[in-house]
Specification:
Blueprint: E1 3-8, H1 15-20, E2 25-27, H2 34-42, E3 48-53, E4 60-73, E5 97-112, H3 113-118, E6 136-139, H4 141-148
Parallel strand pairs: 1-3
Antiparallel strand pairs: 1-6, 2-5, 3-4, 4-5
The chain binds a DNA duplex (12 and 12 nucleotides) through residues 7, 9, 33-35, 54-56, 59, 113, 130-133, 135.
Length: 151
DNA sequence: GCCAACGTTGGC
DNA sequence: GCCAACGTTGGC
């Protein structure tokens, strides 16, 4: 079992949007960074992840999700109408991938970035490191348990 | 809106 | 393969 953190801009796709989806399940589309993609390909069905809201009024962890389907081709890359379109990704040779996530817990209140920074045992967390921009990052078991115990 | 940090692109 | 220029991310 591995743990992860998935970033999304809530204006684009928020945890509330996920909660309102049929089956509360959604393909995690639009990851267009190789390192983030490689992390997604390392995910296994049953892994758990934090849902992080970025570039918004209150950045932070909004809840948790479960990986319910391992990596498959990101079809949005093959849709010319999609903002995530990439002509170099094809059905025969996909460049980008999605995992399917299902809502586990929607926190009543966001665990804010300043809150996360106050916990010294989280100092090494990837998301808290200076300059980190990756939208998919691994989370250690210890980090997962500390944060999850707060809600 | 600012700006630091980072990833990607493309000329050489 | 180097690296400057550029675009993007994301907190503030």
């Amino acid at each position: 079992m591995q743990y992860w953190l998935l970033k999304s801009e809530p204006d684009t796709f928020s945890i509330e949007d996920l909660a309102n989806r049929a089956q509360q399940t959604e393909p995690w589309e639009g990851v267009r960074n190789y390192q983030a993609r490689n992390y997604m390909r390392a995910m296994k069905k049953g892994d758990l992840a934090f849902f992080y809201h970025s570039s918004c009024a209150i950045p932070g962890i909004a809840g948790t999700v479960k990986i319910v389907k391992a990596a498959t081709a990101d079809l949005s890359a093959m849709d010319p109408e999609s903002p995530y379109f990439d002509a170099k990704s094809t059905v025969d040779n996909p460049r980008w991938y999605v995992v399917h996530v299902k809502l586990v817990k929607l926190f009543k209140t966001i665990i804010t970035l300043p809150e996360l920074r106050t916990e010294k045992d989280l100092a090494e967390m990837v998301i808290l490191r200076r300059g980190n921009r990756l939208s998919v990052t691994p989370v250690s078991r210890e980090e997962w348990e500390i944060i999850n115990s707060w809600r």
